[in-house]
Amino acid sequence: MRAKNRLSSSFVKTAPVGKHCDGAGLWLVKREDGGAQWVLRVTVHGRRREMGLGGFPSLGLADARKLAERWRNVVAAGRDPVKEREAEERAARREDISLAMLTADAFESRKAELKGDGTAGRWLSPLTLHVLPKLGKVPVTDLDQRDIRDTLAPIWHTKADTARKALNRISIVIRHAAALGLDVDLQATEKAKALLGKSRHVPKNIPAMAWADVPAFYASLEEPTLTHLALRLLILTGVRSTPLRKIQLDQIEGDVWTVPAESMKGRKGATLDFRVPLADEARRVIDLARPHERNGFLFPNARGGVISDMTLSRHMERRGLKARPHGFRTSLRTWLAEATDAPHEVAEAMLAHLVDSGVVRAYRRTDFLEQRRSLAERWADHVTGGAGNVVALRR
Predict the structure, then answer these.
(1) E strands in the chain
(2) What is the domain extent for residue 280?
(3) Helical axes 188-196 vs 160-179, angle rounded to 10°
(4) Which residues contact 14 (CB under 8 A, 6 or more apart)?
(5) What is the mean predicted confidence (pLDDT) over 333-338?
(6) Same domain? 16 vs 52
(7) In terms of domains, do 307 and 240 share one?
(8) Is 95 exposed, middle or buried (0-12, 13-18, 19+ CB in 10 A)?
(9) What is the DSSP string of 113-125?
């Protein structure tokens, strides 16, 4: 029997379902749906490789043999035909290795790591706003530190945090391109950072209210409006604004509110939900908010969503206060440090801060719920004026 060219044109046209060898590693694979595929099997560096050459009848018998011979010659030269073809395809679509395309590809690869699969757009926004309008069409293999410097220089001192995030994202995209086998400069962002110099921007902390002043402010939230009730619950629980504004009734069971893991900021790599102990006063506020519930959300807005973070901030701004809603987390943390003997890890858990390494957390499988429940009641006592006094809401 011949080692090559075993099949005939007539047989190929009427071949039954199955695999049919033409010799020297070339096979015709006939599928049950009637379609057929040419496949070449070769051995490169002791490893079996299988590559599809094309479908029949668009690729006929004669052309399939010519194509198979070409890739056999590549193998004979000691090269991997699959990698060789991939390199040729990348070269043929050079316009597709632009920074914009690689950014989109890197984002798709990282979506699972981002909160809500990155739907909020915060991972991409530093690039889409400040980098891609200028460098989006530049092939990533041509990108160098001068390009990055010139792009970020206008915001390096004025929007330092955004510029830092943009530089970090560019580095991730370049590493992604390198992993795809593209010839990129992995040090480009570090070199750009050296050219840009040290930022003159001085970060400012979010203004916070002194914990001793919180009871007076809490007492002033006397109307059962969404804004007043949301601010009260924000103060009592110490959570961030986003999970508070998006709280749903089915997340509450008894005196525990379970915040979904995807709603928690600053807990990268964490897969567990976060349990928030609810003091008696917090549960009372929730009961007062129940009449406002819509679609399961405790603090809805008129457009079918939830109240915005600016709603809470503007309420405090209109009252002439420098403090902002997020600052109540600082108020609580300072109270824990100055007015209680709570251990450091328990105090940090009150604010859902991750402490210690992932290894330590893997062995210390507790969220200190009972200790935090006691502290939540004590904080509520302080906020309501002491000794568990209930601050009345005006109807």
Answers:
(1) 18-23, 26-30, 36-44, 47-56, 252-253, 256-259, 274-277
(2) 211-383
(3) 160
(4) none
(5) 93
(6) yes
(7) yes
(8) exposed
(9) GSGGGGTT-TTTH
Both 254 and 372 in one domain: the answer is yes
Integer Cα distance of 188 and 307 in angstroms: 42
Give the model confidence (pLDDT) of 106-137 as tens digits: 998 887 777 666 666 688 999 999 999 999 99
With respect to residue 123, please indicate whether it lies within any of the assigned structural domains: yes
CA distance 335 to 350: 12
- Say yes or no: 234 and 374 in one domain: yes
Residue 56: inside a domain? yes
Q: Which two tokens stand for residue 210?
A: 């002194």
Tally of domains in the chain: 3
Q: Dihedrals φ, ψ of 40, to 5°? A: -110, 125
DSSP-assigned beta bridge partners for residue 42: 49
Q: Which two tokens stand for residue 357?
A: 């390494």
**Beta bridge mates, 26:** 23, 40
Q: How far apart are CA 309 and CA 325, in angstroms?
A: 9
What does the pLDDT look like over 234-270, one tens digit per residue? Answer: 999 999 988 999 999 999 999 999 998 777 765 444 4
Confidence bin at 214 (pLDDT 50/70/90): very high
In a domain, 390, yes or no: no
Distance CA 338, CA 342 (A): 10
Write the CATH number for 347: 1.10.443.10
Pair 332, 369 in one domain: yes
- For the chain, the average pLDDT equals 86
Q: Predicted confidence band at 391 (pLDDT cuts at 50, 70, 90)? A: very low
Query: Which one-letter DSSP state was computed for residue 167?
Result: H
Q: Are residues 366 and 237 in the same domain?
A: yes
Of 141, 173, 196, the one marking the end of a domain is 196
Residue 137: give its domain's CATH number.
1.10.150.130
pLDDT digits (tens, 9 = 90+) for 344-383: 989 998 988 765 444 444 445 578 899 999 999 999 999 9
Cβ contact 147:135 at 8 Å: yes
Mean pLDDT of 208-231: 92
In a domain, 176, yes or no: yes
Note the pLDDT tens digit of each residue in 66-111: 999 999 999 998 888 888 888 777 666 555 789 999 999 999 888 7
How many degrees, rounded to 5, is the angle at CA 315 between CA 310 and CA 320?
Answer: 120
